[in-house]
Amino acid sequence: MVDASFADLSLASLYDALNPWEAGDDFYLNLVMSVRSVLDVGCGTGRLLGRARGDGHRGRLTGLEPSAAMLVQARRREPAVEWVLGDLRSRTWDGDFDLVVMTGHAFQVLVGDEELRLALRSVRAALAPGGRFVFETRNPAARAWSSWTPENARHVTDADGHAVRVWHEVEEPLAGDRVTFTETFEGGPWERPRTSRSTLRFLGADALPGFLSGAGLRVAEQYGDWKRGPLTSESPEIITVAEPVG
After folding, report:
1. H helices of 127-207, where?
2. Among residues 140, 95, 129, 120, which one has the least CA distance to residue 41?
3. Ramachandran class of 143: left when φ > 0, alpha when ψ lies in -120 to 50, beta otherwise
4. One domain for residues 211 and 194
5. CB 44 within 8 A of CB 11
6. How far apart are CA 224 and CA 136, in angstroms?
């Protein structure tokens, strides 16, 4: 799941260049390859499930994504995966999946309390008995947004060989655990810079169990990094493995 920055094809095609395969992708890939059926909520360009299919997964792989432009990339990547346009409000399943994942900090796009509760109830409904829900959110104590500045701009090349500069700017003051920022794309095929505005929620580890329990889920494991290190105040991530209650 991505923010409005990647809502059209010209921007969606840049997503993988800006977000190359890393340790977190390996973490999720190992989980996907260990079960028969997977729902990837906010699947983006389909990189995770496409890789799993290419690596020999022969079970049910379903990617859910609200951006049609991103799903164009996913379908081009791997047509032998079930790609579904929508979100957890518009699409529901009943005990269909051994594993539900939200990667790429997609969990942080769920900004409102009721939006988050509804999404978690939908996840719980989609899980088969013994299933797991795995997601990550940036640890607010690490203050990742402090580096989202024009000075830390990224430079990538689009499919036509054009240089593109991408940077973020955070709006101050922050609104509690919500961080609002702009993302600007300059260069490429555009005569003027393209800018979008997004908000992410930085929930702390102490707040997650309450939301999960309200949906019939509980924390089974938590890690602070992709090597399954312990979660501390200095950890960059809050990686949560949740399971159904009862």
Report:
1. none
2. 120
3. left
4. no
5. no
6. 9
Cβ atoms of 41 and 86 closer than 8 Å: no
pLDDT in tens, 20-48: 999 999 999 999 999 999 999 999 999 99
Element (H, E) at 220: strand 217-223
Task: Identify whether residues 160 and 38 lie together within a single domain.
Answer: no
160 and 57 share a domain? no
- The residue among 93, 155, 148 whose CA lies nearest residue 124 is 93
Do 196 and 116 fall within a single domain? no
Q: What is the DSSP letter of 230?
A: P
Specify the 3-state DSSP secondary structure of 77: helix
Residues 117, 78 share a domain? yes
**Burial state string for 39-48 with b = 16 or more CB within 10 A and e = fewer than 16:** bbbbbbbbbb
Encode pLDDT of 155-182 as tens digits.
999 888 889 999 999 999 999 999 999 9
- Cα 28 vs. chain centroid, distance in angstroms? 11
The residues, ordered by sequence, that sit 6+ positions from 20 with a Cβ below 8 Å of its Cβ are: none
Instruction: Kindly report whether the global pTM for this prediction surpasses the value 0.90.
Output: yes
* Count, residues in the chain: 246
Same domain, 209 and 181: no
